[in-house]
Every structure is written in C-alpha cells, then in structure tokens.
Amino acid sequence: MFKRGFWTAVAAFAVAVGMGQAAAKPSVTVGGKDFTEQLILAEMTGQYLNAHGFDANVRDGMGSTVLRRAQLNGQVDLYWEYVGTSLITYNKVEGGAKMSREEAFEKVKELDAKKGLVWLQPSGANNTYAIAMEEEEAEKHGITAISDLVDKLKGGEELSFATNAEFAARPDGLPGLQDHYGFDWPRAQVKRMNSGLVYKALDEDEVDSAMVFATDGRIAAFDFRVLEDDKGFFPNYAITPVVREDVLKENPELRELMNELSSKLDDDTMQALNKQVDVEKKAIEDVAKQFLKENGLI
C-alpha cells in the first residue's frame, strides 16, 4: 500500500512539473500591418518563434499608427517596422530622407529607446515607397524620373495617380512628395483605394501612375517602371524587428533569434516572397513555412 501510494505521488508530481513547464512557455504577441509583406513577416515570425520555444500570438492586419500605438501600450510585443516610417512619421525628424542608411537607423534606435522600444538588426530589405508607371506608358510620355512626371503635370497633362489612404496623408507620402518636388497633384486625378487594388488599377490601365512598395513582387511581374527619385525625397525603409524593452529583458534569446531571421531578408527575397502570395496566389502560411525550412530556421 505504501509503495503504491508513494509511486502514485511521484507520478502526480511529475505530471504537475510537466504541466508547470508547459505553462511557463514564454508568450509573445507578434504584430503586423495590413498589406502582404507585413502579413508574411508576421506569420513567418509567429511560426519561427513557436518552433523555438515560444507561444507566439499573431495579431496582424493593423494600420501603421494603430500598430505603433499597440506596441507602445504593451498590446503588441514585437513587429517589423521600417526605419523611414519611425524616422519621419513617428519621430518627425526633419531632413530624414537625406540621412544615410546607418545615420537613419542610429537615429530611430536612439529616439525609440526613450520610449522603451529596441531596434534589433536591420534586414537588407529596403521597402521604400516609390512611384511607378507601366513601362509602355512611361516610355510613351518620356518619363524616367519623378521630376519628369512633375514637369508633365505642370505642363497641363492629365496623369491620374492611384494611392492608398495612408500614403495620401503621411508626411513621407504624397503631401511631403508634393512639397519636396514643388507641385500639387490635381485632386480629381488622385484616386484613393486599398493597397492591393493600386497595382491592379495600374496594370489594367485605370490610372497612369501609382504608389508602390519597392519590394513588391508585382513590379516585375506586371512590367512596371519605378521612377527615379531624382531629388532624393524617400528615406531608407530598412525592414527591422522592433521589440519592447521589457519583453526583451525577460526573453533575451529573442535578440539572437530575430537577428538571425533578419539576416536572411533582402530586397530580392522579399520581392520573391511577395510575388508568391500576390501573383502566384500561394497561401501566406505556406510561403512563410517554406522560407523558414529552406533557410534552416525551423
């Protein structure tokens, strides 16, 4: 009777310890914005951290300012941000577009540290905003740079422009672009729509030009010409994992894990991943998992 009771107690203790260990699995909330690249990055990060001992909860599909606020409020622990977005939109740094990649990164790292946010290793992917036209249409009008487009508009040509709502309002978007290049796009020629529809509208000749993201796979797939930013308006937008300082202190292993993932990303990689989802119509979950496996991350 004693032996049976003893071993029963030992077994119960072992189960309790096991349950305690499972409950102690560190939890992290991964955020993401509401466009393809961010959805891929959020899903990829969630799968990656789950495979390395975390309980990752992915919350994506948010607008930039909403996501930033959620991280500052402690509702999101980690997400991928763009250097230029923090530099100009969040921290209001004047002249940010003229900073080198290194200067811009060090500046946002310094400013956001005061807010309890830690910028980890920036990736090699620079998803800057850009202005694009269909190759044939740009050739027809003799447009290779943004200044060429501005000259046509000032000369009275009607060239419509597709943009999402965010770019239309951001200081590093259309308002800042107009100030920097010294022009005003006629309101009637500016068409606001969902980010995904912007590419469709340009591809189907519904507009003459559009805002695009430099790492988007549809640029090459649809034969778009990205206009040269000849007056250097757009800043560097290196994609970088940003984590709350308190979360990093509790889980210091996050630094090495996220830096390793970040080191695998560059412009060509992000274009290829985005193309798989937007052009080839593959599931985001599958694209993320395949990338992680091919790079030996899971």
From TrEMBL:
Residues 244-290 form a coiled coil. One of its GO terms (molecular function) is transmembrane transporter activity. Pfam families: OpuAC (PF04069). Residues 1-24 form the signal peptide. Keywords: Coiled coil, Signal. Residues 27-294 form the ABC-type glycine betaine transport system substrate-binding domain. One of its GO terms (cellular component) is ATP-binding cassette (ABC) transporter complex. Transmembrane segments: none annotated. This is Osmoprotectant transport system substrate-binding protein. It comes from Limimonas halophila.
